[in-house]
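Tokens for chain A. Residues wanted.
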């Protein structure tokens, strides 16, 4: 299953250089933000495939906009931290959980 730097770049260009789950922006939030931005083409984010490539079972065209989302390392690990044989957690559901948790902490 091919991983493409071009798709990862297009994903981040469309969705922004922030984690779609928690909003972390490495180039702004990390102490080495300037180095992150200039040294890492992915701006310190990982491109998550909404449908795992391994479940497709054949070559297929992947859309950086429809099929991928930029995630920070921690959120990407959480998305995939499921029992063997279970699908990854949904990005939008985790995004909602994070939003609700942040609201709860502000009260």
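Reply:
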């Amino acid at each position: 299953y091919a991983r493409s730097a071009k798709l990862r770049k297009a994903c981040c260009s469309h969705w922004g250089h922030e984690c779609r789950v928690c909003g972390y922006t490495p180039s702004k939030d990390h102490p080495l933000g300037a180095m992150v931005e200039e040294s890492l083409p992915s701006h310190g984010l990982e491109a998550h495939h909404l449908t795992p490539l391994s479940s497709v079972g054949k070559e297929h065209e992947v859309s950086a906009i429809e099929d991928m989302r930029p995630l920070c390392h921690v959120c990407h690990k959480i998305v995939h931290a499921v029992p063997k044989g279970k699908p990854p957690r949904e990005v939008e559901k985790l995004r909602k959980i994070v939003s609700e948790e942040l609201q709860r902490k502000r009260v």
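The two ends are 45 Å apart (CA to CA). The longest strand covers residues 46-49.
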